[in-house]
Amino acid sequence: MFTGLAFDTCTAPPLATMNAWRSTSPYGAIAVYVGGKNRGCAQPQLTAAWAGAVSSSGWKLIPLYVGAQPPCQTGSSPEKITAATAVSLGTADGADAVSKASALGMRPGSTLYLDMEAYNTADSSCAAAVLAYTQSFNRAVKARSYRPGFYGFASSSAADIAKATAQGAADMPDALWYAKYDGAADTTGSFPYAQGLFTGHRRAHQYQVNSRETYGGATVTVDRNAWDAPVAVIG
What we know:
Layout: E1 2-8, H1 15-24, E2 27-35, H2 48-56, E3 60-65, H3 86-103, E4 111-115, H4 124-143, E5 147-153, H5 157-166, E6 175-179, E7 203-215, E8 218-229
Parallel strand pairs: 1-2, 2-3, 3-4, 4-5, 5-6, 6-7
Antiparallel strand pairs: 1-8, 7-8
């Protein structure tokens, strides 16, 4: 578990940058894209050796997996959910997420965050397919002794997960990471759902995007997150 400021950026930075930022930036954790057919950036730095070195220097790592995306999503994605494939895709992607995280030295007990982009929540068949996929992904992750987390947008994907959780749906994520660009670096006052949901250090808030920042002479464009949630277990 980590509480503090975290950042995410499309490509994991070189070790020299991570070292420069460790002692000079306000951040204590970094989200890294461990896999998924819809992962958008190459990851030349992201190896077990990198993860081990970054972790040893004090950083916490947040694994993010960009799996299949909503059937009603605008634009093209290499992997999309359908009603017929939601469960099988979720099972396969959950297993793959664990495999990718394990290869980086992330041990059982790590929380793996499924990245689900925005969609039209009024499209009931689309929302149902996303929920079935997410539940199947979560079951596959839990079966391998890892923990499922979920990243989504406050007004769409994360909202549907919060709604299903409040209604008592099975196989929901252990932690919710919501994107709400209000500039508020917290997980309480900014939390857009019922205050009883995802309590006990199980919330994260992406509150600002595309911030170009320089620390220790190294510049990276990052998204900022207020973090109070589980992370990877390394070593």
